Amino acid sequence: MRLDGRQTYDYRTIKVTFGTDYGCCFVDLGKTRVMAQVSCEIVAPKESRPNEGIVFFNIELSPMASPTFEQGRQSELSVKLNRQLERCLRNSKCIDTESLCVVSGEKVWQIRVDVHVLNHDGNLMDASSIAAITALCHFRRPDVSTQGDEITVYSPEERDPIPLSVYHMPICVSFSFFQQGTYLLVDPCEREERVMDGLLMIAMNKHREICSIQSSGGIMLLKEQVMRCSKIASVKVSEITELVGKALENDRKARKAGEKCGFAESLPQERITALKTDKTPVEAMDVTEKVDDIIQKAEVPPLSVPSPSLPVPGVGQVGQNTWGLDEEEEEEEEGEEDRDSSGEEEEKGTKTQKEKDKGSQTADLIIIDEVVELSDSEEEEVVILHPDT
C-alpha cells in the first residue's frame, strides 16, 4: 500500500496549463508544481557549429518550493536535474537546431528554457521534462528577414511568429526501488523519495525510442528489471504525450477564436474583487409610517448644548491663556530686556521678585471658590486643584 492510496504503477494527476504569452507552461503532478518559460535572442554561434542554433536549459530550485532549497546556491540536486534535462532534450536532438540559424557563422537564435520549481512534492524530473518540452512546443519565435548584412526582426503585429521544429517529445519516467530492488514504484512522491534505495530515470518518446537512462543510489539492477521498467515507461509516455497534445490543441483553438487563455482565463473581467461585501436586504415597505412613528416616540432634542463646567466649589482649571499669566510674563520679560545694561544685583532682585509674584499668583489660584467653565480645546492640559491640599 502507498501512502496516497495509489497502485504500484499509477501516476499522480497530471494537469497542463499555459500562460498568457507563448512558451509559458505550468505542470501540476499531484502537489508538485513546475513552471517553464522559453525565451529567445540572437547571438553569435559556437565556432564548432556555425550553422546551428543554441538551446540552453536552466532549473531554479527556490526556497518557496521547499525549505531544503537554498537561495543563490546550486545544490547537488539542481546540478543533477540540469544534466538530466539536457541529456533528455538537447542530446536526443528533439529540436531542429539548424532551423535556428539566421546568418551562417554570424547570427543564430539562442533558445533558453528556464524551469522554476514552485512546489516540491517529489519526482521533479518528470514534471520538469513535461513542462520543458510542452513549453518548447508552445513557443513561437519572431520572424526574421535578411537583406545583405541587414537583419530585420519582425514584431508579432507585423508578421506571425514561427513555431520551433520539434521532431519528437522525450519525456522522463522515474522508478524508485525499495529493499534492494524487491519493490518497484512509479512516480515516487517526496516521502517515498526519502526512504528509497535507488532511482532509475528513463527518457523515452512515443515511438518507443529511449533517449537517455540514468540510475542513481548505487543499487544493482538486473537486466529483467530494466526491461520491465522500459515497457512500463513506453505505456506511460504515450499517455502523457497524448495529454500534452490535447492541451496544446485546446490552447491553439482558444487563441484562434480570440478567447481568454492561460492565467487571464481565471480572472473575472469588469468586476471589483477587493472590498467585496455581501448584500444586506432592506425592507422598503411602509417607510413613511415607520418614520412618523419613530419621530413621535423620540424625545425632543435640547435647543442648546450646555458647556462643560465644574460645579464643585474650590476647583479650577489651569490652562493656556486662562488666568492671564502669559501676558504678565511677557511684560516682565520686556522689562528685563530694558534693564540688561544694569548690574547683576538688579537681575537677582528681579528674579526673586518674579518668583514672589508667581508664588502669590499660585496661592491666589488655590483659594478660588467660583465655578469655572472648561475650555473646548483638546490641546489644553487640565489640572484639578483641591482646596484641602
Structure in words:
With 389 residues, the protein is α+β, with helices and mostly antiparallel strands. The chain contains seven helices and 14 strands. Strands 1, 2, 3, 4, 5 and 6 form a six-stranded mixed sheet that branches. A hairpin with a 2-residue loop joins strand 8 and strand 9. Helix 1 crosses helix 2. The radius of gyration is 42 Å and the shape is extended. The chain starts with 13 loop residues before the first strand and ends in a 23-residue tail after the last helix. About 4% of the residues have low confidence.
Q: State the total count of DSSP E strands.
A: 14
* Largest beta-sheet details: 6 strands, mixed
* Low-pLDDT regions: 319-325, 362-368
Mean pLDDT: 78
Which range does the strand content fall in? 15-25%
Describe what is shown at a glance.
The protein is of the alpha+beta class and 389 residues long. It has helices at 76-89, 124-138, 190-195, 223-256, 287-297, 325-338, 344-366, and strands at 14-18, 24-29, 32-43, 54-61, 101-103, 107-119, 140-141, 144-147, 150-153, 162-163, 171-178, 183-186, 198-204, 210-216.
